[in-house]
Amino acid sequence: MHLPDMNLLVALDALLDEGSVVGAARRMHLSPAAMSRTLSRIREAVGDPILVRAGRGLVPTPRALALRSQVRSVVEQAQQVFSAPQEVDLATLERDFNLRANDVFIAPFAAILLETLREQAPRSVLRFVPEGEGGDEDGALREGRLDLYISATRDLGPEIKVQGLFSTRMVGLARADHPLFERPITACRYAAYEQISVSRRGRAQGPIDSALAAMGLQRRVALITPSFHSAMFSLPDTNLLLPLPEHVLSSVARLGLPLRAFELPLALEPVAIMQAWHPRFDNDPAHAWLRQTLKACCSTYRLN
User: Fold this and answer.
1) Which site in 4, 48, 146, 188 is 20 to 30 Å from 300, CA atoms measured?
2) Which of 125, 122, 129 is nearest to 99 (CA)?
3) What is the CA 160 to chain-centroid distance, rounded?
């Protein structure tokens, strides 16, 4: 079905309101000649003269009078669509927010974020979804399966929006009575003990290995786990060492495990943590609120 140019509705509304081609032209910033041509198109689309000559002026036809309120309503609704305020009623918002993050983020920040949702958007749900096959974060963001991806800064493609949340640094963790603590911790002594690598993709190598290699040293990774919390429970009964982001230490303390943190004897760059989203959500007020809320929650941590 062929639909007429919707701009004709706006012109028809102006013509019916002004009762004059000149007045309607002035309102729509057109010349009288252009408005006359528009009136001809309206007459053809509606199948009615709409306005007819009566002395020196124009009067609406019965068909035009019948259409007046309907046309006015449609034009007002269209104006509301394009001028609707970017607001959201958080108290009544019913939405599932899908985030992807590992336990390094979930442990220290999820409770803070959830508490904010309870206070401001009590009908919304916070869902942390697992990693897909092959690390499909960019695809999941593009397809709308993820609202936010939270991770160490990485390239997700040119169209994906990224905002920094905070920076953290790597520290070490071991059982409280580990022999490592008997003498000053040097790079050589650190590399001598078997270690844990935390990787959702099963990787054993990373920046620590590069830093050790620059010093002519090499560590042995004896255990690879998908999460930091599963790795922590391997420490109390072994001599394993676990490198982990410093901001997780507050969660470690709450677990009450007999563990002790230590400074890594290596020169490592801070780790920048980001949140990423697809531009489709840029102007979504609920999504913008989520991003702002998450950013505010992360401001509770500051790299020393």
Assistant:
1) 146
2) 129
3) 10
Q: Which two tokens stand for residue 193?
A: 């003990």
Q: How many CA atoms lie within 13 A of 139 on its CB side?
A: 6
CB-count exposure of residue 209 (10 Å: 0-12, 13-18, 19+) = middle
Q: Residue 100 — pLDDT band, cuts 50, 70, 90?
A: very high
Separation CA 93–CA 95 (nearest Å): 6
Q: pLDDT value at position 18?
A: 83
pLDDT band at 86 (very low <50, low <70, confident <90, very high): low
On whether the CB atoms of residues 299 and 166 are closer than 8 A, the answer is yes
Domains, the chain, ordered by start: 6-82 (1.10.10.10), 90-167+272-300 (3.40.190.10), 170-269 (3.40.190.10)
Q: How far apart are CA 143 and CA 280, in angstroms?
A: 10
- Rounded CA separation 296/304 (Å): 18
- The 10s digit of each residue's pLDDT in 163-194 is 999 999 999 999 999 999 999 999 999 999 99
Question: Contact at 8 Å (CB) between 252 and 232?
Answer: yes
Paired residues of 52 in beta bridges:
59
> What angle (nearest 5°) sits at the alpha carbon of residue 38, between those of residues 35 and 39?
90
Residue 76 has pLDDT above 80, yes or no: no
Q: How confident is the model at residue 1 (pLDDT cuts 50, 70, 90)?
A: very low
Give Cα separations from 242 to 103, 190, 223, 265 (angstroms).
15, 11, 10, 14
Burial of 219 per CB tally in 10 Å (0-12, 13-18, 19+)? buried
> Taking CA 245 as the corner, what is the angle to CA 139 and CA 147, rounded to the nearest 5 degrees?
25
Quickly count: other Cβ atoms within 10 Å of residue 246's Cβ: 18
User: What rounded mean pLDDT belongs to the chain?
Assistant: 87
Dist. CA 124–CA 21, nearest whole Å: 52
